[in-house]
TrEMBL record:
SUPFAM superfamilies: ATP synthase (F1-ATPase), gamma subunit (SSF52943)
Annotated keywords: ATP synthesis, Cell membrane, CF(1), Hydrogen ion transport, Ion transport, Membrane, Transport
Family matches, as PROSITE patterns: ATPASE_GAMMA, CNMP_BINDING_3
Record-given protein name: ATP synthase gamma chain
UniProt key word Cell membrane: yes
Subcellular location: Cell membrane; Membrane
Membrane-topology annotation of the record: Peripheral membrane protein
The keyword Ion transport is annotated on this UniProt entry: yes
Segments forming domain Cyclic nucleotide-binding: 255-275
NCBIfam families linked: ATPsyn_F1gamma (TIGR01146), PRK05621.1-1 (NF004144)
Species in which this protein is naturally found: Massilia haematophila
Annotated family: Belongs to the ATPase gamma chain family.
Length: 289
């Protein structure tokens, strides 16, 4: 059984750890609210841009944007992998990176080459160790996503698709379900089919007047939709990160409290055993005299 000093030292160490995890939990709660507000604000914009682009695509069937053209064969694909810059958020990064590795193995079995864009330090580090062909990456995003820092790396893949060097582009990130649950998802970013740019069938299909022409407007709308989807995915990932970190730090704080309780009980038992032994020795000595 360890001595009093060792137990007291361990209790003090766990108490210090609990203070840190509690502080990190409170910080995550504060950031989580802002991240969720940003995430919820990004969803309606992406949905509205998609509906308008879908309406225009149906109203102008003579022009098809290159992002809407599906290639006949799948030779090379692009993956946009969104992860976090920091750890201590449970199994969030592990789950999305497992989804990515499974997709890359499926591509490898089909003989499809893969170009990867890594958003987030954890994903970039893992993909480089995994041996993936990382064509661009962006790290140190901070607590607020900035579109100008995201579009550049992703543009490497979109330009390759326009040059007929890629046949499809997928995006992998963690979708925010609620504070307790987040799920890794994979979405087809390009090519955009009718299931992606779907028009709202319940609304009236309006006759749009486009200036300077429909092609220019559709090109701009599709580009905005891709940017909105990338931004929304990063916003969803950040909201998931803060929620997952809050839950992980709460669990760590609770576990630290349980450990402190067990160590305190062990300390009291050791102290009581020592007192009992001293009393026994005193009584035995007195009886011998």
């Amino acid at each position: 059984m360890p001595g009093f000093k060792e137990i007291r030292t361990k209790i003090k160490s766990v108490e210090n750890t609990r203070k840190i995890t509690k502080a990190m939990e409170m910080v995550a709660v504060s950031k989580m609210r802002k991240a969720q507000e940003r995430m919820r604000a990004s969803r309606p914009y992406a949905e509205r841009v998609r509906n308008i682009a879908g309406h225009l695509a149906e109203a102008n069937p003579d022009y098809v944007h290159p992002f809407m053209v599906r290639h006949e064969s799948l030779r090379r694909a692009g993956l946009v992998v969104i992860s976090t810059d920091k750890g201590l958020c449970g199994g969030m990064n592990t789950n999305v990176l497992r989804l990515v590795t499974n997709r890359m193995r499926d591509y490898a079995r089909a003989g499809v080459a893969v170009d990867v864009v890594a958003v987030g330090g954890k994903g970039a580090g893992f993909l480089n160790r995994f041996g993936a062909h990382v064509v661009s990456q962006v790290v140190a995003l901070g607590d607020t996503p900035h579109l100008e820092s995201l579009i550049g790396p992703v543009k490497v893949l979109t330009d390759a698709y326009l040059a007929d060097e890629l046949d499809e582009i997928r995006i992998c990130y963690t979708r925010f379900v609620n504070t307790m649950a987040q799920e890794p998802v994979e979405e087809l970013l390009i090519p955009m089919g009718s299931e992606t740019l779907r028009a709202d069938r319940g609304a009236l299909l309006l006759d749009y007047l486009c200036e300077p022409d429909a092609q220019t407007v559709i090109d701009e709308l599709v580009a905005n939709y891709v940017e909105a989807l990338i931004y929304r995915a990063v916003a969803e990932n950040m909201a998931s990160e803060q929620s997952a970190r809050r839950m992980a730090m709460k669990a760590a704080t609770d576990n630290a409290g349980n450990v402190i309780g067990e160590l305190t009980l062990l300390y009291n038992k050791s102290r009581q055993a020592s007192i009992t032994q001293e009393i026994t020795e005193i009584v035995s000595g007195a009886a011998a005299v």
